[in-house]
Design brief:
single chain; about 190 residues; alpha+beta; Nuclear Transport Factor 2, Chain: A; 6-stranded mixed β-sheet; 7 helices; elongated
Length: about 190
């Protein structure tokens, strides 16, 4: 049952493209039927797929799921790192954070040191998989970091991040980050 609800949530709220394409196909069939019969009844039916499509699109646009919120938080952190700042990371790290960098102050200090050593030109996030269960979420995501100058060039890392939902202004907080793994060997210069 839970898997079915998760699938419905994904289809209706996060990726309604399948529903919208299906409604488009129904609309095309109704247009074809109307062209053949020129019936007033079929003409009235033409409004239903459009109306349903507008409702599905509006719901998907205005409702932000936990998974979408966490993905946007990761994008905010990456964009902030591109600007040379760790403020977004500090905002999303939980006060009880453990993991890569030991604790929150040390992790922020490590991020600031890295940002001072290497200027980041671009960060691309990909292969994002988020599993939400109640007040916790597990995120697996890859990042490709392009550096300006220096000896590194480009670095591709895989991350495993555990999020917890807290009653804070940001809501979801990073509770734990495992040390990253290099996902595409050979991208760094020896």
């Amino acid at each position: 049952m839970f898997a079915d609800m998760e699938t419905l949530r994904t289809i209706f709220l996060e990726d309604p493209a399948y529903i919208l394409v299906g409604l488009g196909v129904v609309e095309m069939a109704l247009i074809a039927a109307w062209c053949v019969r020129r019936s007033g009844r079929v003409l009235k039916l033409l409004a239903w797929p459009v109306a349903l499509g507008v409702v599905v699109f509006a719901v998907a646009w205005f409702v932000v799921t936990d998974r979408e919120y966490i993905r946007q938080a990761a994008n905010d952190i990456a964009a902030d790192f591109q600007r040379g700042s760790s403020d977004a990371a500090a905002r999303y790290l939980d006060e009880k954070y453990t993991g890569f960098g030991q604790d929150k102050p040390t992790a922020i200090l490590l991020a600031n040191h890295m940002l001072a050593q290497q200027r980041i030109r671009k960060i691309k996030l990909s292969h994002c998989n988020i599993r939400v269960e109640g007040q916790q979420a597990e995120m697996k995501i890859n990042s490709v970091v392009h550096f300006e100058g220096g000896d590194i060039g480009m670095l591709s890392l895989g991350w495993r991040i555990r999020w917890v939902k807290r009653p804070t202004p940001t809501g979801w907080q990073i509770a734990h980050v495992k040390p990253p793994t290099q996902t595409l060997p050979g991208f760094t210069k020896p």
